[in-house]
Amino acid sequence: MATLSLDFALPLRSFELTLALDVERTVALVGPSGAGKSSVLRVVAGLARPARGHVRLDGEDWTELPPERRRAGLVFQDYALFPHLDVLGNVSYGGRERAHELLERLQIAHLARVRPGELSGGERQRVALARALARDPAVLLLDEPLSALDAHTKSEVRHELADLLRELRLPTLLVTHDYEDAASLADEVGVLVDGTLRQLGPPAELVARPKDGFVAAFTGANLLHGDARGARGMTVVTLTSGERIYSTDEESGAVGVVVYPWDVSLAREPADDSALNVLRGEVGSVVAVANRVRVRVGPLTAEVTAASADRLDLAGGGEVYATFKATGTRLVRI
Amino acid sequence: MIRRVVVLGAAFAGLAFLLLPVVAIFARVPPGRLLSQLGDGAVLDALRVSAETSALAQLLVLAVGTPTAVVLARRFHGRELLVSVVELPLVLPPAVAGIGLFAAFGRFGLLHTSIPFTRLAVVFAVAFVSGPLYVRAAIAAFEGVDANIVAASRTLGAGPTRTFFRVVLPLARTGLAAGAALALARGLGEFGATIMFAGSLRGVTETLPLAVYSEFNVDFDVALSISALLVALSAALLITLKWRPSVSTSRFRFAASS
Domains in chain B: how many in total? Predict the structure, then answer.
């Protein structure tokens, strides 16, 4: 598989964007708006010229190439479809050979003769993806791929997009302000603030060991993978590690279990309270974040007060029980 | 109540004032005679001169004005100044434009040419006066093309030229057509700059508006017929102008939002 290698500086209005990053699979850049995320994509696509540094795909230096000579498929945040061309015209703009196949693959073949103005948000998103893929890109760039969609469409598209990215096996750089989207789509997540990459790592790693308060705040949630099945008005999720989790959300099939660290309580003894979910595990890392402490227990990260951490002697390690309520356990399709 | 009567009365008077001269052109001579007057030799000559010079001027305006507008639609230092240069002829008195052209292209002018009082002089005068209208509309049309859509074309493998013809031009088309229609209408009526720079030689430089002026002293009815023709042409252009944008809004409704 190819590697997209970035190492550049781009002066923006109020700060300089500097980034050194190797992209092999899917990397998500997250951060607040105005952090320079979209500018990274523009530099890779050749739409913005860095002041110094390089953009390379394996041995091929893209730094001086105009956009049309780079093989970078960019899906714009607003999709930027050609309003004067129909769906087929849009998709075959960059390459005719695979256009029909891609329309089929993205389930938009029936819209071939429709103009973008008449499409829904989800349909436009598919057209934009198909158009970017039709030129047979070596790199895929996605700018806020899910942000323009309503909640319902979003979960559906996220699911499909995750499948598609797995199947394409292209170096993919995606930008989002939503950590949940990043965690469900990407192998690695980078937190970009004011043009600087604060931390880069697998989603779970960022949740468990945030380098600073900003990353901690941004990476909010735990994400566990499992298989959901409905039973007696409650959804039971069997995690890949074997444990069972209960949620009041209704889902079935492959899901991500989202639990916020501050919803997880820790105890040395199994507690007899109303929380349905109990996971037993060894205390992993213990990281102080301001006046709180983030504690890794098995696949989970819990956030407790510094006082509780002292009382339970978490720094000493050992076995603890992590409990959280079924009502505070959200399920997302992935 | 009184205020309402005053307001409506003023509106009615205003509209009547604007409409009356146009109606008068058609009222004085019966339509049949208006048409037969158009067969007059002087009218046919003027029609031919107007058609040829307007067509040439329009070609010149489109060929030179379009690239000019492309450049001026970009953001750069000194752009405002250059746009003002383009707009100046719009506010210049036509007679001043004529003198200026004479001073520039006259035998004893800056460039020492023999253009004055030729067919080409008419083309120059018309283009000088009508061109800025087109360029201004074209700048707005190009500025209205979403930069992301242009960028998308580039990332899809189309170079700047292909992007221009396949994306920018089709998306700016409506605005460009409106500008062209406006320029054509203005050019057809050009009088002041033409008479100063090209004179009024029948069959050579005498356009329809110039013929109206010269026939005014010879045969008032002929002058009226030509005027009627010009009214019809102007009205036709106005209708195309009014129609096009409404067609385009429904067609490109999502251009701005997508």
Answer: 1
CATH classification of the domain holding B115: 1.10.3720.10
**Which whole number is the average pLDDT over A187-205?**
90
User: Strands across the sheet with A16-23, in order?
Assistant: A16-23, A4-11, A52-57, A60-61
- Domain assignment of residue B116, yes or no: yes
Q: What was the pLDDT predicted at B252?
A: 41
Cβ pair A229, A249 in contact under 8 A: no
Spatial strand order in the sheet of A265-267 = A265-267, A319-324, A277-289, A292-297, A300-305
Average pLDDT over residues B227-239: 91
Q: Which of residues 106-165 of B touch A (CB under 8 A)?
A: 146, 148-149, 151-159
Question: Is there a contact between A68 and B253 if contact means CB atoms under 8 Å apart?
Answer: no
Assess B171–A contact: CB distance below 8 Å, yes or no.
yes
Residue A252: how many other CB atoms lie within 10 Å: 13
Q: Which of B166, B252, B258 sits opposite A80 (nearest CB)?
A: B258
Of B71 and A249, which is predicted with more confidence?
A: B71
Which chain A residues contact residue B171 at CB under 8 A? 83-84
B56 Ramachandran zone, left/alpha/beta (phi>0; psi -120 to 50): alpha
User: Residue A16's domain spans which residues?
Assistant: 4-218
User: CB distance B154–A124 less than 8 Å?
Assistant: no
Model confidence at A146, pLDDT cuts 50, 70, 90, reads confident
Using a CB-CB distance cutoff of 8 angstroms, which residues of chain B are in contact with residue A93?
Answer: 153, 156, 158, 166
Q: What is the pLDDT of residues B7-45, one digit of tens each?
A: 999 999 999 999 999 999 988 878 888 888 888 888 999
B156–A84: do the CB atoms touch at under 8 Å? no
3-state secondary structure A217-232: HHCCCEEEEEEEEEEC
pLDDT band, very low/low/confident/very high, at B251 (cuts 50, 70, 90):
very low
